[in-house]
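A student in our group prepared the protein record below, which I am reviewing. Thanks in advance; the entry in question is below.
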Amino acid sequence: GDVYKRQAIGLSILGLILAIILLLEDYRDPSSSYCDLSSRISCTIIRHSPYAKILNVPIAALGVIWFSITLISTIQANYHESSTHSTNANLFNFWIQFLT
C-alpha cells in the first residue's frame, strides 16, 4: 500500500532530478563535462553520439517529460485510493520506473 506509493513518488522525483541535471548538462559547454572521468567514461562522448537525441530532441528532455507524467499520475492515483484502478496504476508506475 503506502510503501509502494512512497517508492513510486520517490523514484519519480529522483528520475526527474537526474533528467533535469542531464538536460542542463546537454546545454553546457560542449567541449567538456564534470562527468568526464576518462577517455572511455565520458558524458561528452555520449552527448555527441548519434543516440543522444531522437528527432533532434535530447534523451534527457524526454526523461523530464516521462518522469513528470509519472510523478503527476502517481500523485493523482494516490488521491483516489478507494478504487482498484488507482492501486493498479500505482503498481504499474512503480514497475515501469523499476525497469527504467
